[in-house]
Amino acid sequence: MPTNASSSKLLTLETLDISAAHIYPTFVFGTITYLTIVFCNLLVLITIAVSKKLHKPMFILLFNLPISDMVGATAFFPHLMFSIVTQSRLISHPACITQAFLIHVYGTGNLLILSAMAYDRYIAICYPLRYNTIMNPNNLIRIIFLIWFINLSLIFTLIMLNARFKICRTNIVDLYCNNPSLLKLTCEDTRVNNYYGIAIIVLLQGVPLSIITYTYAQIFHTCVMTNQPDARRKAIQTCGTHLVVFLILQINTTFTLIAHRIANVSPNIRRTLGVSVIVFPPFLDPIIYGLKITELKQNIILFLKRNFCSIKL
Known about the structure:
Helix content: over 70%
Radius of gyration: 21 Å
Strand order of the largest sheet: 1-2
Distance between the termini: 54 Å
CATH architecture: Up-down Bundle
Number of helices: 11
CATH class: Mainly Alpha
Structural class: mainly alpha
CATH topology: Rhopdopsin 7-helix transmembrane proteins
Shape: globular
Order of helices and strands: HEHHEHHHHHHHH
Number of domains: 1
Oligomer: single chain
């Protein structure tokens, strides 16, 4: 845990460089973006929860993605909006550690959830006769428990290894708190943290990428070989949606992590990539899934119509 000296310090996040004339338009835009993210993700969550037709392994796994997205967005946007209005980039050390923890939980959670969803589609398309046996309720609960246990335990260890240090600097080099920027505040030996961080990067970037690559190669092979055009089209449409969402997160995350470890990378590029990891997936995920997965889209429309009609009455 942080020392008393560290806990009492206020840290300074990277400046936003917003002129006085643009403060309130930026605040309004940021607030609308955050509320849109929360609304769209809650809509997906509630629709899956209340629609019995969606109580299937694929959608139960998908149910976890909006939760993770809202964790990331909520860790980032409220403090950002507060900073814009007050023109203050100060944050306490415990609050910074909490923000870093939640943001890393969001990123890791998304990668693991998307990997589990890819596995689910692999079983459904390549082994349809065994799908109900393999993806039975007990196994589904085990998969979801494993996702969150691995996520929380790895990130908790990562942040606690960081929080044990006494800090000697107060300037965060990013627009929000994360593990690499927190490590740069200490003057102590961080080799253990660096080794653990590299191991996590290899594990959490490599394993999901391997799962996605293998499962989608098998899925597309099966789709090419099938003689049922409708089944092929539906499978490619659903898997294409997962693949787009995964690639958006994977590419952004990979470049952001690499940028932190290369000294001559432009700080502005690193910050832009870092923000894009938090803003784009939570904003795009519910829209992509809501529009591209027909069954989910139909139930969202039905849910909105039913509740809109009840409000009018």
